[in-house]
Amino acid sequence: MRKNKQFIQVAMIAIILGALAAVVAYFGDWLPAPASREAGRIWFVIWISTIVSIVIFAIVTAAIIYAAVKFRAAPDDDTDGPSIHGHSRLEIVWTIIPTVIVVLLSIASAVAMHDNGKAAPDRIKIEGIAQQFSFAFKYENGVQSGTLRLPLKRQAELHLTALDVIHSFWVPDFGQKQDMVPGQTFKLNVTPTRLGTYPLICTELCGLGHSIMRTSAIVMEPAAFEKWLADQKAALSGPPGEAGKTVFTNNGCAACHAFTAAGATGAVGPSLDDLSASATAAGQPLEDFIRESIVAPNKVAAKGYPANVMPQTFAQLPEDQLDALVTYIAENGKGGS
Ligand code: CUA
User: How many Cβ atoms from other residues are within 10 Å of residue 84's Cβ?
Assistant: First the structure.
Protein backbone atom coordinates (compact mmCIF):
# COMPACT_ATOMS: atom_id res chain seq x y z
CA MET A 1 0.00 0.00 0.00
CA ARG A 2 2.74 2.43 0.99
CA LYS A 3 4.72 1.47 -2.13
CA ASN A 4 1.70 2.24 -4.26
CA LYS A 5 1.44 5.71 -2.76
CA GLN A 6 5.14 6.39 -3.37
CA PHE A 7 4.79 5.24 -6.95
CA ILE A 8 1.85 7.58 -7.54
CA GLN A 9 3.74 10.53 -6.04
CA VAL A 10 6.79 9.92 -8.25
CA ALA A 11 4.52 9.50 -11.28
CA MET A 12 2.80 12.83 -10.56
CA ILE A 13 6.14 14.67 -10.37
CA ALA A 14 7.25 12.94 -13.59
CA ILE A 15 4.08 13.97 -15.42
CA ILE A 16 4.52 17.63 -14.37
CA LEU A 17 8.21 17.66 -15.40
CA GLY A 18 7.44 15.87 -18.67
CA ALA A 19 4.68 18.36 -19.47
CA LEU A 20 7.03 21.30 -18.79
CA ALA A 21 9.77 19.82 -20.97
CA ALA A 22 7.23 19.09 -23.71
CA VAL A 23 6.05 22.71 -23.68
CA VAL A 24 9.64 23.96 -23.98
CA ALA A 25 10.37 21.49 -26.80
CA TYR A 26 7.18 22.14 -28.72
CA PHE A 27 6.80 25.90 -28.39
CA GLY A 28 10.51 26.81 -28.50
CA ASP A 29 11.72 28.02 -31.88
CA TRP A 30 14.37 25.29 -32.20
CA LEU A 31 14.10 24.18 -35.81
CA PRO A 32 13.07 25.96 -38.99
CA ALA A 33 9.97 24.47 -40.63
CA PRO A 34 11.28 21.80 -43.04
CA ALA A 35 11.58 23.13 -46.60
CA SER A 36 12.42 19.81 -48.24
CA ARG A 37 11.15 16.24 -48.16
CA GLU A 38 14.54 15.13 -46.80
CA ALA A 39 14.29 17.63 -43.94
CA GLY A 40 10.80 16.34 -43.10
CA ARG A 41 12.20 12.83 -42.59
CA ILE A 42 15.10 14.11 -40.50
CA TRP A 43 12.76 16.22 -38.34
CA PHE A 44 10.65 13.06 -37.76
CA VAL A 45 13.69 11.26 -36.32
CA ILE A 46 14.61 14.32 -34.24
CA TRP A 47 11.09 14.39 -32.78
CA ILE A 48 11.17 10.67 -31.90
CA SER A 49 14.45 11.11 -30.03
CA THR A 50 13.15 14.29 -28.37
CA ILE A 51 10.08 12.46 -27.07
CA VAL A 52 12.20 9.55 -25.78
CA SER A 53 14.54 12.06 -24.08
CA ILE A 54 11.65 13.89 -22.44
CA VAL A 55 10.22 10.65 -21.01
CA ILE A 56 13.61 9.57 -19.62
CA PHE A 57 14.30 13.07 -18.25
CA ALA A 58 10.91 13.18 -16.51
CA ILE A 59 11.23 9.75 -14.85
CA VAL A 60 14.86 10.15 -13.72
CA THR A 61 14.41 13.72 -12.45
CA ALA A 62 11.18 12.82 -10.63
CA ALA A 63 12.91 9.92 -8.85
CA ILE A 64 15.84 12.15 -7.85
CA ILE A 65 13.60 14.92 -6.54
CA TYR A 66 11.39 12.48 -4.64
CA ALA A 67 14.36 10.67 -3.08
CA ALA A 68 16.14 13.90 -2.11
CA VAL A 69 13.05 15.24 -0.36
CA LYS A 70 11.60 12.06 1.12
CA PHE A 71 14.73 10.22 2.24
CA ARG A 72 16.77 13.21 3.34
CA ALA A 73 19.00 12.32 6.37
CA ALA A 74 18.43 14.31 9.54
CA PRO A 75 21.25 16.86 10.18
CA ASP A 76 22.72 14.79 13.06
CA ASP A 77 22.26 11.39 11.40
CA ASP A 78 25.73 9.93 10.75
CA THR A 79 24.69 6.30 10.26
CA ASP A 80 25.38 4.41 7.04
CA GLY A 81 22.52 3.36 4.78
CA PRO A 82 21.62 -0.34 4.46
CA SER A 83 24.06 -2.27 2.30
CA ILE A 84 22.32 -3.61 -0.78
CA HIS A 85 23.71 -6.40 -2.93
CA GLY A 86 22.56 -6.53 -6.57
CA HIS A 87 19.08 -6.94 -7.98
CA SER A 88 18.96 -9.22 -11.02
CA ARG A 89 15.47 -8.29 -12.18
CA LEU A 90 16.24 -4.57 -12.02
CA GLU A 91 19.50 -5.07 -13.92
CA ILE A 92 17.75 -7.01 -16.67
CA VAL A 93 15.11 -4.28 -16.99
CA TRP A 94 17.63 -1.44 -17.19
CA THR A 95 19.56 -3.30 -19.85
CA ILE A 96 16.58 -4.23 -22.01
CA ILE A 97 14.84 -0.81 -22.06
CA PRO A 98 17.85 1.19 -23.39
CA THR A 99 18.59 -1.58 -25.90
CA VAL A 100 15.06 -1.37 -27.28
CA ILE A 101 15.24 2.46 -27.45
CA VAL A 102 18.60 2.47 -29.25
CA VAL A 103 17.46 -0.20 -31.74
CA LEU A 104 14.25 1.71 -32.51
CA LEU A 105 16.15 4.99 -33.03
CA SER A 106 18.67 3.22 -35.27
CA ILE A 107 15.88 1.76 -37.40
CA ALA A 108 14.12 5.15 -37.71
CA SER A 109 17.43 6.82 -38.70
CA ALA A 110 18.31 4.08 -41.18
CA VAL A 111 14.89 4.38 -42.87
CA ALA A 112 15.22 8.19 -43.11
CA MET A 113 18.76 7.97 -44.53
CA HIS A 114 17.74 5.28 -47.01
CA ASP A 115 14.74 7.30 -48.25
CA ASN A 116 16.83 10.48 -48.48
CA GLY A 117 19.43 8.66 -50.58
CA LYS A 118 16.95 7.30 -53.14
CA ALA A 119 17.30 8.79 -56.62
CA ALA A 120 14.09 10.00 -58.29
CA PRO A 121 13.79 9.23 -62.04
CA ASP A 122 13.06 12.88 -63.00
CA ARG A 123 15.85 14.39 -60.88
CA ILE A 124 18.03 17.22 -62.11
CA LYS A 125 21.76 17.10 -61.55
CA ILE A 126 23.66 20.13 -60.31
CA GLU A 127 27.39 20.35 -59.63
CA GLY A 128 28.34 22.30 -56.51
CA ILE A 129 31.90 23.56 -56.22
CA ALA A 130 33.30 25.23 -53.11
CA GLN A 131 36.44 27.30 -52.90
CA GLN A 132 37.75 29.89 -50.47
CA PHE A 133 35.32 31.64 -50.04
CA SER A 134 32.41 31.08 -52.34
CA PHE A 135 30.12 28.50 -53.88
CA ALA A 136 29.45 27.92 -57.57
CA PHE A 137 26.64 25.78 -59.01
CA LYS A 138 26.80 24.37 -62.52
CA TYR A 139 23.70 23.17 -64.33
CA GLU A 140 23.59 20.49 -67.01
CA ASN A 141 23.18 23.06 -69.80
CA GLY A 142 26.42 24.81 -68.85
CA VAL A 143 24.91 27.71 -66.89
CA GLN A 144 26.88 28.56 -63.75
CA SER A 145 25.45 30.51 -60.85
CA GLY A 146 26.66 31.75 -57.47
CA THR A 147 23.23 31.04 -55.97
CA LEU A 148 21.57 27.63 -55.94
CA ARG A 149 18.26 27.75 -57.78
CA LEU A 150 15.96 24.75 -57.47
CA PRO A 151 12.56 23.84 -58.89
CA LEU A 152 9.79 23.13 -56.36
CA LYS A 153 8.94 19.46 -55.63
CA ARG A 154 11.53 18.02 -57.98
CA GLN A 155 14.55 16.19 -56.66
CA ALA A 156 17.91 17.89 -57.23
CA GLU A 157 20.91 15.59 -57.08
CA LEU A 158 23.79 17.78 -55.94
CA HIS A 159 27.30 16.61 -56.78
CA LEU A 160 29.41 18.41 -54.21
CA THR A 161 33.15 18.92 -54.25
CA ALA A 162 35.80 21.50 -53.32
CA LEU A 163 38.92 22.84 -54.99
CA ASP A 164 41.19 23.81 -52.12
CA VAL A 165 40.31 22.83 -48.55
CA ILE A 166 37.34 21.11 -46.89
CA HIS A 167 34.14 23.13 -46.92
CA SER A 168 30.64 22.01 -45.98
CA PHE A 169 27.26 22.57 -47.62
CA TRP A 170 24.41 23.51 -45.31
CA VAL A 171 20.95 24.94 -45.87
CA PRO A 172 19.37 24.78 -42.39
CA ASP A 173 15.85 24.66 -43.84
CA PHE A 174 16.82 21.59 -45.90
CA GLY A 175 18.17 19.81 -42.81
CA GLN A 176 21.20 18.12 -44.35
CA LYS A 177 24.88 18.93 -44.09
CA GLN A 178 27.46 17.53 -46.49
CA ASP A 179 31.20 18.08 -46.42
CA MET A 180 32.73 19.30 -49.68
CA VAL A 181 36.14 17.69 -50.01
CA PRO A 182 38.88 18.33 -52.59
CA GLY A 183 39.35 15.36 -54.92
CA GLN A 184 36.07 13.70 -53.94
CA THR A 185 32.47 14.16 -55.04
CA PHE A 186 29.58 13.44 -52.70
CA LYS A 187 25.93 13.26 -53.75
CA LEU A 188 23.17 14.94 -51.78
CA ASN A 189 19.47 14.89 -52.68
CA VAL A 190 17.25 17.88 -52.07
CA THR A 191 13.55 17.87 -52.91
CA PRO A 192 12.24 21.34 -52.00
CA THR A 193 8.68 21.52 -50.71
CA ARG A 194 8.35 25.27 -50.10
CA LEU A 195 8.99 28.31 -52.30
CA GLY A 196 11.39 30.86 -50.89
CA THR A 197 14.96 32.02 -50.43
CA TYR A 198 17.00 30.21 -47.81
CA PRO A 199 20.49 30.89 -46.47
CA LEU A 200 23.17 28.53 -47.82
CA ILE A 201 26.12 28.44 -45.46
CA CYS A 202 29.61 26.95 -45.39
CA THR A 203 29.67 25.08 -42.10
CA GLU A 204 33.28 23.92 -41.97
CA LEU A 205 35.98 26.31 -40.74
CA CYS A 206 37.87 26.81 -44.01
CA GLY A 207 39.98 29.91 -43.50
CA LEU A 208 39.80 33.61 -42.75
CA GLY A 209 36.76 34.20 -44.94
CA HIS A 210 34.74 31.26 -43.57
CA SER A 211 32.22 33.52 -41.87
CA ILE A 212 31.39 35.35 -45.12
CA MET A 213 31.17 32.18 -47.20
CA ARG A 214 27.44 32.15 -47.67
CA THR A 215 24.92 32.51 -50.47
CA SER A 216 21.25 31.61 -51.07
CA ALA A 217 19.21 28.61 -52.13
CA ILE A 218 16.22 29.87 -54.10
CA VAL A 219 13.26 27.53 -54.59
CA MET A 220 11.19 28.49 -57.64
CA GLU A 221 8.01 27.30 -59.38
CA PRO A 222 9.12 24.66 -61.92
CA ALA A 223 8.00 26.80 -64.89
CA ALA A 224 9.84 29.86 -63.55
CA PHE A 225 12.92 27.72 -62.93
CA GLU A 226 12.92 26.30 -66.47
CA LYS A 227 12.48 29.82 -67.82
CA TRP A 228 15.36 31.14 -65.72
CA LEU A 229 17.61 28.31 -66.90
CA ALA A 230 16.65 28.83 -70.57
CA ASP A 231 17.01 32.63 -70.28
CA GLN A 232 20.46 32.24 -68.74
CA LYS A 233 21.47 29.89 -71.52
CA ALA A 234 20.12 32.25 -74.18
CA ALA A 235 21.78 35.27 -72.58
CA LEU A 236 25.08 33.40 -72.46
CA SER A 237 24.94 32.66 -76.17
CA GLY A 238 24.10 36.27 -77.07
CA PRO A 239 26.68 38.94 -77.97
CA PRO A 240 29.64 38.90 -75.51
CA GLY A 241 28.69 42.27 -74.02
CA GLU A 242 25.27 40.99 -72.93
CA ALA A 243 26.38 37.47 -72.09
CA GLY A 244 29.03 39.04 -69.86
CA LYS A 245 26.41 40.96 -67.94
CA THR A 246 24.60 37.70 -67.18
CA VAL A 247 27.81 36.07 -66.02
CA PHE A 248 28.50 39.15 -63.85
CA THR A 249 25.06 38.92 -62.23
CA ASN A 250 25.01 35.13 -61.81
CA ASN A 251 28.33 34.99 -60.08
CA GLY A 252 27.57 37.63 -57.51
CA CYS A 253 30.23 40.10 -58.68
CA ALA A 254 27.90 42.96 -57.72
CA ALA A 255 28.03 41.95 -54.07
CA CYS A 256 31.62 43.21 -53.81
CA HIS A 257 32.32 45.52 -56.74
CA ALA A 258 30.94 48.85 -57.87
CA PHE A 259 30.28 48.80 -61.61
CA THR A 260 28.08 51.48 -63.13
CA ALA A 261 27.17 49.49 -66.25
CA ALA A 262 25.60 46.77 -64.10
CA GLY A 263 24.13 49.14 -61.51
CA ALA A 264 26.44 47.51 -58.95
CA THR A 265 27.53 49.42 -55.86
CA GLY A 266 29.50 46.82 -53.84
CA ALA A 267 32.34 48.25 -51.75
CA VAL A 268 34.23 45.17 -50.55
CA GLY A 269 36.49 45.06 -53.60
CA PRO A 270 37.83 47.74 -55.93
CA SER A 271 35.49 49.56 -58.32
CA LEU A 272 35.53 48.25 -61.89
CA ASP A 273 34.59 51.53 -63.53
CA ASP A 274 38.06 52.76 -64.37
CA LEU A 275 40.42 49.87 -64.99
CA SER A 276 42.61 51.31 -67.76
CA ALA A 277 44.95 53.01 -65.31
CA SER A 278 45.39 49.84 -63.24
CA ALA A 279 46.07 47.83 -66.40
CA THR A 280 48.68 50.33 -67.51
CA ALA A 281 50.26 50.28 -64.06
CA ALA A 282 50.40 46.48 -64.25
CA GLY A 283 51.93 46.78 -67.72
CA GLN A 284 49.22 44.65 -69.32
CA PRO A 285 46.65 45.15 -72.06
CA LEU A 286 43.24 45.85 -70.49
CA GLU A 287 41.62 42.53 -71.38
CA ASP A 288 44.61 40.47 -70.18
CA PHE A 289 44.65 42.44 -66.94
CA ILE A 290 40.94 41.80 -66.36
CA ARG A 291 41.25 38.10 -67.15
CA GLU A 292 44.15 37.65 -64.78
CA SER A 293 42.33 39.59 -62.06
CA ILE A 294 39.44 37.13 -62.37
CA VAL A 295 41.26 33.81 -62.58
CA ALA A 296 44.24 34.62 -60.35
CA PRO A 297 43.12 37.54 -58.20
CA ASN A 298 45.96 37.25 -55.72
CA LYS A 299 48.63 37.91 -58.34
CA VAL A 300 47.26 41.34 -59.13
CA ALA A 301 45.28 42.27 -56.01
CA ALA A 302 44.66 46.02 -56.06
CA LYS A 303 46.42 48.23 -53.49
CA GLY A 304 44.54 48.48 -50.22
CA TYR A 305 42.62 45.25 -50.87
CA PRO A 306 43.96 42.20 -49.03
CA ALA A 307 44.65 38.96 -50.87
CA ASN A 308 42.32 35.95 -50.55
CA VAL A 309 39.15 38.01 -50.30
CA MET A 310 38.28 37.71 -53.98
CA PRO A 311 37.24 34.08 -54.53
CA GLN A 312 39.45 32.08 -56.85
CA THR A 313 36.46 30.02 -57.97
CA PHE A 314 36.01 31.99 -61.13
CA ALA A 315 38.88 30.19 -62.81
CA GLN A 316 36.29 27.40 -63.00
CA LEU A 317 33.98 29.39 -65.26
CA PRO A 318 33.44 27.75 -68.64
CA GLU A 319 35.79 29.37 -71.18
CA ASP A 320 33.05 31.10 -73.20
CA GLN A 321 31.50 32.62 -70.05
CA LEU A 322 34.90 33.86 -68.90
CA ASP A 323 35.53 35.42 -72.34
CA ALA A 324 32.13 37.10 -72.25
CA LEU A 325 32.75 38.45 -68.76
CA VAL A 326 36.15 39.86 -69.71
CA THR A 327 34.71 41.52 -72.81
CA TYR A 328 31.80 42.97 -70.84
CA ILE A 329 34.03 44.44 -68.12
CA ALA A 330 36.56 45.73 -70.64
CA GLU A 331 33.84 47.42 -72.75
CA ASN A 332 32.21 49.11 -69.78
CA GLY A 333 35.12 49.58 -67.42
CA LYS A 334 37.64 51.43 -69.56
CA GLY A 335 36.89 54.59 -67.67
CA GLY A 336 36.75 58.11 -69.04
CA SER A 337 39.67 60.50 -69.61
CU1 CUA B 1 34.13 27.32 -46.70
CU2 CUA B 1 33.92 27.59 -44.37
Answer: 6
Pocket lining for ligand 1, CB < 6 angstroms? 130, 133, 167, 202, 204-206, 210, 213
Q: CB 85: neighbour CB atoms within 10 A?
A: 4
205: CA distance to ligand 1 center in Å?
Answer: 5
Tell me which of 2.60.40.420, 3.30.479.20, 3.40.50.1820, 2.60.40.1930 is the CATH number of domain 124-222.
2.60.40.420
Reported pTM: 0.74
Domain ranges of the chain: 2-67+96-117, 124-222, 238-333
Distance from the alpha carbon of residue 221 to the mean position of ligand 1, in angstroms: 29
Q: How far is the CA of 250 from the centre of ligand 1 (A)?
A: 20
**pLDDT tens digits in sequence order for the chain, 337 residues long:** 577 888 899 999 999 999 999 999 999 888 889 999 999 999 999 999 999 999 999 999 999 999 999 888 888 888 888 888 888 998 999 999 999 999 999 999 999 999 999 999 999 999 999 988 888 899 998 888 889 999 999 999 999 999 889 999 999 999 999 999 999 999 999 999 999 999 999 999 998 889 888 899 999 999 999 999 988 888 777 777 778 888 887 777 877 888 888 888 777 788 888 888 888 888 888 888 888 888 888 877 777 787 777 777 677 777 888 888 888 888 888 775 4
Which CATH number applies to 238-333?
Answer: 1.10.760.10
